[in-house]
Design brief:
2 copies of one chain form a homodimer.
Chain A: H1 25-33, E1 38-43, E2 46-52, E3 55-58, E4 61-62, H2 63-69, E5 76-81, E6 86-91, E7 103-104, H3 107-110, H4 116-134, E8 145-148, E9 153-156, E10 162-163, E11 168-177, E12 180-185, E13 197-200, H5 207-219, E14 223-234, E15 239-248, E16 262-267, H6 268-276, H7 290-299
Parallel strand pairs in A: 1-6, 11-15
Antiparallel strand pairs in A: 1-2, 1-4, 2-3, 2-7, 5-6, 8-9, 9-10, 11-12, 11-13, 12-16, 14-15
Helix pairs in contact in A: 6-7
Chain lengths: 302, 302
């Protein structure tokens, strides 16, 4: 009996990370020559995609084809193994050699058109490339750091510090009072869009403390109980979204105008309409976002 | 009805973080002069403690007393508000002025002797000081960064990058098969100590994926179901421990000798003996550690 399926995009990677191979450069070199190896090329943190008969596909290619277009020093990440072989990602500085075959697209925009497996794999690669791009120097001493362990570590030659990819936990929650759910909106969002409240966890907090703090800060609501719904890795750039349904004590919501433009209570019928795209003047984020899954889970619960 | 009490040390901080004050230097300056303000002094990331009638206490002091011993440029963290006033922490380079009154001690060792409230507050401060100590330079460009927002941010004057304290999510799990729980031990631990399995979450993973990966990597066990028990902020230096009971499919455990020296199955009676400190040849971590709470929760469940 496998684990119950997580409903979120970017979850459920089909790859075995096989992390022990990361520390084995000889194995990595061999894998890069294997005919079963497949490789995803990124440019400016955007994955390579191709149109085939009107459908968009992740443009996986053999390692030989990729080697022909990649400079020798191209950053490389070992992503893991599937039933056929190894998977890698590289980032190339010049997109030109591939522009006649396909294009590089922001994962956030095209994710919903790709397979769930590719979304999970490409999201992981994107998080790592984003991290490398913003962490080229040692935070401990300021010297340049270098990539190690097939993309999963950076090492500082000056002070010997080791640096590992950041994963930033974020609590994202739908406050529920009686038979209504509160959603908020930021001024910069498209007109009518409402979503869950959210905020980065801080040192010294449990999940329930972070949920209580953010829910009070953003909407003036006091949290009584916290139910974990699911988690989602979110590669923009590297959050762990911790989705929670929060039962709150009061319904006199008070919006924090530094964070949000407005908050609004929705009945269960209204929340169902939001999810179905049938609300007269509001809409929710798409199924790609954990906020959608949180609202849906509460709206459709018996 | 407040939130159910989290069983873990470092959880349940009594402070309101009042994060909006962090961005208000005038308010911070005023608070530092207030007679109700209390301040915790650290040296080398160790908090100041005093013995009073044989009991150890966190050595909170008034801001005036602290100002007398701290150089003007001393790093300062605004921790939040309690019912009486504001709480801050500072780190001083020279412990001498306070050594006649008390001493600086590692929080990990003395935590169990302090009140739960002080453990939560001091843990948060320690995480932040550890982060500042290892992040004095901008990871994006290598320039020196400076503290901002009353200790909660660092800013790079060269490239304008903003840096926020790390919180590293870690899954920590007790694999359960039928009526037995698996615990592991590292070679460097005291003889007989057995604890939960654990590992850092990586980009691109959900909680259940990280639990499944680490449980298989470390012990060769396949996870069927994951139940969240609780979370714990762990300030050595700044983990979010995500405590999970993992139902596993197989009991032919195979230890990963790079990570662990041994794994061992314990019956429920044996687990109860571990928690009570009455097992003939093994013991578990103390109640201070979430591993203890995980084992206890399973061992004492009906």
């Amino acid at each position: 009996m496998p684990l119950p399926r997580n409903p979120n995009a970017f979850a459920n990677s089909p790859l075995d990370r096989a992390a022990h191979h990361r520390r084995d450069p000889a194995w990595i070199d061999e894998a890069l020559k294997a005919p079963t190896t497949e490789l995803m090329v990124f440019h400016a943190h955007k994955p390579f995609v191709v149109e085939r008969e009107g459908a968009l596909e992740a443009g996986w290619m053999g390692a030989h084809a990729a080697a022909a277009i990649a400079p020798p020093a191209t950053p490389l990440i070992f992503l893991g193994l599937d039933a056929h072989g190894a998977r890698f990602a590289i980032e190339i500085p010049d997109p030109a050699p591939l522009e006649s075959v396909g294009r590089f697209e922001e994962l956030r925009g095209i994710g919903p058109r790709l397979t769930a497996d590719d979304v999970a794999i490409l999201g992981c690669a994107k998080s790592l490339f984003e991290w490398h791009a913003r962490h080229g120097f040692c935070a401990n001493c300021g010297a340049k750091s270098v990539v190690a362990e097939a993309g999963w570590k950076r090492v500082c030659g000056a002070c010997n510090s080791e640096h590992f990819p950041r994963v930033d936990p974020v609590v994202i929650m739908t406050p529920v009072c009686g038979d209504r759910v509160l959603l908020g909106r930021q001024a910069k969002w498209p007109k009518g869009m409402h979503s869950a409240l959210a905020g980065f966890m801080e040192p010294g907090e449990t999940i329930e403390e972070a949920v209580a703090r953010e829910t009070f800060e953003e909407a003036g609501l006091r949290v009584n109980a916290v139910r974990l719904h699911s988690t989602q890795p979110w590669p923009f750039p590297s959050q762990l979204m911790i989705g929670v349904i929060a039962d709150v004590e009061n319904d006199d919501a008070k919006v924090d105008e530094h964070e949000l433009e407005a908050v609004r209570w929705f009945t269960r019928d209204e929340a169902r309409a939001l999810i179905a795209g049938k609300h007269p003047d509001c809409f929710s984020p798409p199924p790609f976002a954990i906020a959608h899954q949180l609202i849906k889970s509460w709206a459709l619960a018996d």
